[in-house]
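Worked problem 6 (solution included).
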Amino acid sequence: MLDQDMREPLFDYLDLNFGKIRILEEKVIRGSRADVLGVLDGYFVGFEIKSDQDTYTRLKSQVKDYDRFCDFCYIVVGASHRKHVAEHVPDHWGILVVTEDGVEMDRGADDNPEEHLLENQITLMWKRELQQLLEMNDCPKYAGKSRKFIAEKLLERVEHVRLKAQMTDLIFERDYTVFEDQPTVSEKKVRRKRAVAAKRAVAGDRARAHTAHYVGRRKTRTKKK
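Solution. The predicted structure is:
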């Protein structure tokens, strides 16, 4: 079973068994890209997919990254991995097996024992969401400050269980269409290059005009002599 064949049954299973959940796909977490990040009420749950064609080559580093961000973690595998997958993930990871008949839970997930989870999870928030969190908790606006600075202040000033619940609420309401009319990274690079080229062209024109004026003055003076 291929990765793309496993996702739809997985999403159906999550909708049926996890209640209110928002699914984020291919989310970057440190050095890994989380296949599926599930956002629940006050929790982040990670799902790493290993299809029948996948190996465990990168799993060790992926496990570390998931454990830095997720309150609960699951590995989702095809049937061919069922026998040995438990040997490759920590005991607190759950195991879901996707077969032609659907999704089966081989092992439930326990609380992630990793510390400092919230300090990593808050980096998933957009700056506008961090500013909303400041307002929700009657904090100063910290106008002009960086995302990192605002995040640190929220962690200092807001009780962590309350803060995480607010964070997941905001992600539930997150609207990705706000970026539809905004330029992509590549478009921004092209625009910057064009702007630099335009400035250089203007500077070149000024330099040529100055040179022509200077030469003209020299010619005029030479004639007078």
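Discussion: Confidence is low (pLDDT under 50) at residues 218-225.
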